[in-house]
Amino acid sequence: MSIAQPIRANFKLSRPGFTLDVDLTLPGRGISVLYGASGSGKTSLLRCVAGLEKAQTSFLEVAGEVWQDSHAKKWLPTHQRPLGYVFQEASLFTHLDVKANLAYGYRRVKAVTPRFSMDDTIELLGISHLLDRYSATLSGGERQRVAIARALATSPRLLLLDEPLAALDAARKQDILPWLEKLRDTLDIPMLYVSHATDEVARLADTLVVLELGHVRACGAVGDVMARLDLPMALGEDASVLIAGYAHEVSAEWHLCLVNFPGGQLWVRSMPGTATGRAVRLRVLARDVSIASVAPALGSSSIQNLLPCTVSAICDAPHPAQAVVQLRLKTETGEAFMLSRITRRAAHTLGLCVGMPVWAQVKSAALLD
To answer: Are strands 215-221 and 57-62 parallel, antiparallel or unpaired?
Structure first.
């Protein structure tokens, strides 16, 4: 596999009451999630990349090709940029069936051989049974899968997804997430994905960009960024960390999987198809982690995951009764971080301070893939 060239994006876009000012270098493969509250600049940044907004100062390079450079007065119009764009609402042609919608995308490809054949795209998104149907008869999740397939039909060098799950209910959202994971793991093109949902970040992101008021607050590997206490997502109700590891043992009797990771190991509920040696990612919610100053006696608690660690940071949570504690887990194979949300009274009673050795009790962790 060739080394993917990074995306370089520098934009300064000024509007009344808002300025987007970003300078980013993002991986040329995988999903980079643009995360932030409404008004943080996520969609504005995506539209700048697509050429739908013309920033006063700009530079954009994708796959080694400069698409725009305000200093050199270079500007590639949107229709000449090899990109696919998927919106919140699937913009399908209602007078065409699914197969004709896909064919429209392929007609836009100038190359003799498209990067993704129609058959490959149909199989990748699992839509072969939908080809003869019209968009009005599709569920929201099915429409979005078809919209993604049509975007891929244009042989893009970059795929942009602007909150593609925002219009779906929880059930349809869970239906489509595995397909997005498949795209991430299969496609050899980078994706920029806009979201304000931490569950989507945990499931999909390789790289996480946190935006606030038009500026980049953080950019890096998703696990590193989610564990930081200086960012708003660490203080929300769904505050969590993401841990990469591998399935060390699968227990058919207990329907559990033992996941080893740099910093320790955790028992979690297994998923169908989980096999020993498989690379997985875990999401551990801060509210599911408690702290003990001494190791509980073996067999004295229903909590099966007990990890030695060190307090690395403490901060107040939004609710005045609570605190968030960052815990550092370190073993010979590496280190990882967890977050724990506890009451400030508990932190005081335990005498928690930075550098103090403690035990993390993990009630639950979600195996994501």
So the answer is: unpaired
| Residue 360 structure tokens | 């993390």
Q: What is the pLDDT of residue 1?
A: 46
Tokens of 241: 């960390």
* 228-244 confidence digits (pLDDT tens): 999 988 888 889 999 99
Element (H, E) at 66: strand 65-69
Q: What is the pLDDT of residue 154?
A: 86
Is the Cα torsion angle 135, 137, 139, 142 positive or negative in sign?
negative
DSSP string, 283-312: EEEGGGEEEESSPPPTTSSS--EEEEEEEE
Question: For the chain, how far is it from start to end, CA to CA, in angstroms?
Answer: 23
Name the residue among 132, 38, 53 with its Cα closest to residue 88.
38
For 108-174, the three-class secondary structure string (H helix, E strand, C coil) is CCCCCCCCCCHHHHHHHHCCHHHCCCEHHHCCHHHHHHHHHHHHHHCCCCEEEEECCCCCCCHHHHH
pTM: 0.91
Query: Looking at residue 57, what is its pLDDT?
Result: 95
Mean pLDDT of 281-297: 93
Q: Is the pLDDT of residue 326 over 50?
A: yes
For domain 240-367, the CATH class is mainly beta
CA dihedral 337, 341, 347, 352 (to 10 degrees): 10
Choosing among 3.40.50.300, 3.40.50.720, 3.20.20.20, 2.40.128.710, the CATH entry for 7-234 is 3.40.50.300
